[in-house]
TrEMBL record:
This is Uncharacterized protein. It comes from Paspalum notatum var. saurae. Keywords: Membrane, Transmembrane, Transmembrane helix. The chain crosses the membrane at residues 7-25, 59-78, 238-263, 275-295. One of its GO terms (cellular component) is membrane.
């Protein structure tokens, strides 16, 4: 057994966990007022659970999120029927479950926001038929002119409303950012590494695999185009922790008797294992950067549209 390779792999994972926890703790203890993503079509303020597009009713975003959660859950059920429970050992399935959880939580968050805003509007005006699309409950303070187009702010403290709503909003935003990084990572590894170079009795390219590695990104990009969530850089720490958790679970599974690796390069006893672990750790940066740039591009487009609407 290659003991030194195992030690180096353990050190890489431990260092990643430690660095991520330090980043989260520092950010938590040194919070500052966050910039806010812009909102299209000149609405005064955007509810964080609503769409960034003022002409898209919050109920539409709610319906999309519910549809995405149901569709991805159906794909997961198809995956389990095609294989067996052992398929859940793959990072792909972990990411799929994470994405389903995100869309389910976002659906609940949207429903809570729509319902709370509707109740408030009815209380203010019993004869009002407002659907809540312009409600201010749980909205960010400030007007559109104060908004910063940068998508790298943290919105944790910018939301007003009950503590339960703030907690759910925080969980949704963390889930969104971790899901974004994980989807890019799993699709990049799958299409660039696994499909061309790896084959085993536990893997075969078929319709369900193609659906998983296409729909996960399609639904996520659609969500990004519609939602009103920031994409701060420091949240990459949660993405790293998610992957480290997956690796640690794999180690525990093998200590408990699992005899095969879902991804052969994860075996810490292989001679090249330290290089693989280091490469996978570094790969988190470009994966998160790719999605950060996507969110940045959307924010810039919204800013230009706002400027055009004012002129």
């Amino acid at each position: 057994m290659a003991q030194w390779q195992s030690f180096v792999c353990f050190a890489i994972v431990a260092a990643s966990v430690a660095a991520s926890l330090v980043a989260i703790i520092r950010r938590t203890t040194n919070r500052r007022p966050p910039p806010r993503p812009p909102r299209a079509a000149g609405s005064a303020a955007a509810a964080p659970w609503a769409s960034c597009w003022s002409r898209v009713p919050p109920a539409w975003l709610l319906a999309f999120r519910a549809t995405a959660a149901a569709a991805l859950a159906a794909v997961l059920a198809w995956d389990l029927r095609t294989y067996d429970a052992s398929i859940m050992l793959y990072y792909t399935e972990w990411t799929l479950v994470l994405e389903i959880g995100y869309f389910a939580a976002a659906t609940a968050w949207s429903a809570n926001g729509c319902l709370a805003t509707h109740r408030r509007s009815r209380a203010d005006d019993p004869e009002s038929t407002d659907d809540g699309s312009h409600g201010r409950l749980l909205c960010r303070s400030g007007g559109a002119d104060e908004q910063d187009p940068k998508p790298d702010g943290d919105d944790d403290d910018a939301w007003e409303g009950p503590a339960a709503g703030r907690l759910l909003g925080l969980l949704v935003q963390i889930g969104y950012q971790v899901t974004a990084g994980a989807v890019v990572l799993t699709d990049a590894v799958f299409w660039a590494l696994i499909v061309p170079f790896i084959s085993s009795a536990h893997f075969s390219l078929n319709a369900v695999m193609v659906c998983i590695h296409s729909l996960n990104l399609v639904f996520l990009l659609s969500e990004t185009a519609l939602n009103n969530l920031a994409f701060p850089w420091f949240r990459m720490a949660y993405f790293v922790l998610w992957t480290c958790l997956y690796v640690i679970v794999q180690w525990i599974a093998h200590l408990c008797g699992l005899t095969w690796w879902p991804y052969p390069f994860l075996s810490p006893t292989a001679s090249s294992a330290p290089l693989w672990y280091l490469a996978m750790a570094l790969l988190h940066f470009p994966c998160y950067l790719v999605y950060w740039l996507i969110v940045r591009a959307k924010s810039c487009c919204l800013v230009h549209m706002q400027a055009a609407n004012r002129s």
